[in-house]
Amino acid sequence: MTRVLVLNGPNLGRLGTREPDVYGRGTLEDLRLQLEEDAPDDVLIDLRQTDDEGTLIGWLHEAVDKRMPVILNPAAFTHYSYALRDAVAIVTDSGLPLLEVHLSNPHSREEFRHTSVVTGVATGVIAGLGFDSYRLALSAVLRRSGS
Ligand code: DQA
Fold first, then answer.
1. 134 is known as an active-site residue
2. Nearest-CA residue for atom 1 of ligand 1
């Protein structure tokens, strides 16, 4: 059984009602159901969300300790959290795949969103495709985890 961690940063718990023109009307629960439907039978989707940087970093450490591939939407932390970047580097340095995802395309938005401090240490990044960003990331992490 492969467990895939799908980690979501600040304000993503408000999906569905938060800026629907940018992020769509689907909720995190809708996303979880979609990924569960996509996942092969021997893959477990462990979707989590937090507004707290320390909690997110703790989950990345857990990914390393339990050897879990990661899909990460760091939300606003993307743009400034060096602590999160360092935690992502620990994951990818350990040989686990970590895909950075975004629902929107940050490069078509405000200037401050054009910088990601995470991308340089992530395995890859998929952005701008709504829930499809996560669905494509799931297939990519599974191909890289030998599942
Ligand atoms: C986001 C893009 C970020 O700039 C923003 O702060 C978010 C969501 C996205 O999924 O498009 O909270 O990561």
1. no
2. 75
